[in-house]
Amino acid sequence: MRVIFSGGGTGGHIYPALALLQRLQERDLLDEVLYIGTEKGLESRIIRQKNIPFEAIELQGFKRSLSLDNLKTVRLFLQSTHRAKRIVRDFKPDVVVGTGGYVSSAVLFAAAQLHVPTVINEQNSVAGITNRFLGRFVDRISIAFPEVAAQFPKQKVVLTGNPRAQQVAGMQANQRLTDFHLQPEVPTLLIFGGSRGAERINAAFLAALPELNKKDYQVLFVSGQVHYAKIQKALANKTVNKNIAVEPYINDMPTILPDVAVILGRAGATSLAEITALGIPSILVPSPYVTNNHQTKNAESLVNHQAAEMITEEQLTGQSLLKVADRLMQDQKLRQTMSEQARQLGVPDAADRLIKVMQDLIH
Ligand SMILES: CC(=O)N[C@H]1[C@@H](OP(=O)(O)OP(=O)(O)OC[C@H]2O[C@@H](n3ccc(=O)[nH]c3=O)[C@H](O)[C@@H]2O)O[C@H](CO)[C@@H](O)[C@@H]1O
């Protein structure tokens, strides 16, 4: 089939599209693909790096408060819808898939107006602004959390899970930690604040570092690309022992995850799909800066199932990080239980379920 993907801004909206694309290729179902994103979003780097045909359109998100900038948003939306229609007409896709982020609003809206079959994937337990808008126009809405169904027209909703889950579910431990000078056989705590990094998580890591240096476990700390220079500066006059590795970004996260004992990070939906697909115990620090506090709701679904611990951003300090990290890193039995609980929430065939939705639409 010929497929246009659109989604972006942050990794949580890009990796599900990439995972679906990879699965379509594995099953020899993909004839041609085009990805439509923005230059500003992480997709322009991530998609181009993978040599996937990429077209950029210009768009921006709505400000939640009343603002003149919203007039520009509307103008850009109209212009980019016009442009997206041209791209869709030229490419002639069998189906257009949206994975969230404001760029997909214009692309999916344009495709729906042209009567091309459309599907969106909502990864979160609370629908994003873009997907809530698109829900009215697209043909199918694929969801990962049952509770989000109520926010969409009922007859369009299908529970598929997040396609990224299937991509990571099959991954085996492969010793890639040695790339970061860490030892594969030593339990490793991965600390990262979503695809863009999180300042408060970074600050807590820096505060905890003197103690983390002394641990018999390892830490792989990922700062986020934009925070890396600042972190390096802060680390310049500090001791960083051999059990600690510091990176700006991990390009191929699925190859690292099977070797990780515990994750401390945000509660972005795509991270959670990975955590549950692999059964990784986690300490979740939901971002309070997202629409309707959806990361807290995402996190609660794991916490209520004894699969994860949660600390609020306010509670997060070097001390609280150490306390909860030690508890999990020093108790293999607890990790085992959390791992089993997490895995029960995973959807290891999510990509195939979503492909079925696409096939049913086309035929
Ligand atoms: C601030 C914001 O709007 N966050 C949203 C965004 O988060 P964000 O983009 O941070 O998304 P997630 O935490 O869901 O996913 C991050 C993705 O990036 C990958 N990764 C991360 C770091 C790294 O170094 N390398 C790497 O590959 C992870 O493996 C994962 O696949 O999209 C999610 C999915 O809709 C939402 O739930 C989040 O609320």
TrEMBL record:
Binding residues annotated for UDP-N-acetyl-alpha-D-glucosamine, in chain numbering: 10-12, 124, 195, 250, 295
Keyword Cell cycle on entry: yes
Annotated metabolic or biological route of this protein: Cell wall biogenesis; peptidoglycan biosynthesis
Signal sequence, renumbered to the chain: none
Family: Belongs to the glycosyltransferase 28 family. MurG subfamily.
Function of the molecule: Cell wall formation. Catalyzes the transfer of a GlcNAc subunit on undecaprenyl-pyrophosphoryl-MurNAc-pentapeptide (lipid intermediate I) to form undecaprenyl-pyrophosphoryl-MurNAc-(pentapeptide)GlcNAc (lipid intermediate II).
Protein name: UDP-N-acetylglucosamine--N-acetylmuramyl-(pentapeptide) pyrophosphoryl-undecaprenol N-acetylglucosamine transferase
